[in-house]
């Protein structure tokens, strides 16, 4: 499924390989983690339909950001939240998305709101456009074109309370085992098992 052409040489696309590690069927939103103001922030909703970047009050307080940095924001917000909410204010924060071995960074103007939400923040079109992001809800993934090539950021699906697999490291020693995540990509999972087996004296 081709999504977008960037420049003259690179095409950002999604295919069956991007389905690895995703639990189907699903109706999940695309939710990722980013560094916001140097704070590791999880549960950031990627919303291409939002014309604003939103930071919820609970996350703002946890970051320990000086509230005096908030600027007045008199315009009510309703399109992204399903209700009319008056922002506490707006603030510009550094946002960083890490994709080993590189990063994508920008300064984002967040509207800070006091309302209950499962999410910590919403990344809307302003940030997604600046970062030149292409998203796929079906694949629960977003991609960027960087100098080192196309980089991927995956959804957090299943990271919370993710089941673990017990891997036996030594058949002769029942206590020699390790636990690994079950929802990583199959190829990565297989390589990790081989690595544990080859170095069982270290991990057992």
Net shape: elongated
* CATH level 1 name of the largest domain: Mainly Beta
Number of strands: 13
CATH superfamily of the largest domain: Acid Proteases
Provide a compact summary of the structure.
This protein is mostly beta strands. 15% of the residues lie in helices and 39% in strands. The model has no long low-confidence stretch (mean pLDDT 83).
Topology:
Elements: E1 2-6, E2 10-13, E3 31-36, E4 39-46, E5 53-56, H1 57-63, E6 89-99, E7 102-113, E8 121-123, H2 125-130, E9 133-136, E10 141-146, E11 149-154, E12 164-168, E13 177-181, H3 186-198, H4 200-203
Parallel strand pairs: 4-8, 5-7
Antiparallel strand pairs: 1-2, 3-4, 3-6, 5-8, 6-7, 9-10, 10-11, 12-13
Task: Describe what you observe in this structure.
The chain has two domains: 153 residues, Cathepsin D, subunit A, domain 1, CATH 2.40.70; 40 residues. It is built from four helices and 13 strands. A six-stranded mixed beta barrel has the order 3-4-8-5-7-6. Strands 9-10-11 form a three-stranded antiparallel beta sheet. The longest helix is centred in the C-terminal third of the chain and has 13 residues. The mean pLDDT is 83.
Fill in the keyword field for this structure.
204 residues, mainly beta, Cathepsin D, subunit A, domain 1, 2 domains, six-stranded mixed beta barrel, three-stranded antiparallel β-sheet, 4 helices, 13 strands, 15% helix
């Amino acid at each position: 499924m081709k999504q977008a052409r960037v420049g003259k040489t690179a095409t950002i696309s999604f295919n069956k390989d991007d389905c690895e590690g995703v639990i189907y069927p699903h109706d999940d939103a695309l939710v990722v983690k980013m560094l916001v103001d140097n704070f590791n922030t999880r549960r950031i909703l990627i919303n291409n339909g939002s014309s604003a970047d939103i930071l919820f009050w609970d996350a703002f307080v946890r970051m320990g950001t000086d509230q005096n940095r908030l600027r007045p924001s008199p315009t009510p917000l309703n399109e992204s939240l399903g209700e009319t909410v008056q922002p506490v204010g707006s603030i510009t924060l550094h946002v960083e998305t890490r994709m080993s071995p590189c990063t994508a960074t920008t300064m984002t103007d967040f509207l800070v709101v006091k309302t209950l939400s499962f999410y910590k923040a919403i990344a809307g079109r302003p940030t997604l456009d600046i970062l030149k992001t292409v998203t796929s809800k079906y694949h629960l993934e977003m991609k960027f074109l960087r100098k080192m090539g196309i980089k991927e950021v995956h959804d957090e699906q299943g990271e919370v309370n993710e089941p673990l697999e017990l891997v036996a490291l030594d058949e002769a020693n029942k206590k020699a085992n390790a636990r690994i995540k079950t929802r990583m990509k199959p190829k990565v999972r297989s390589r990790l098992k081989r690595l544990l087996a080859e170095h069982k004296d270290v991990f057992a």
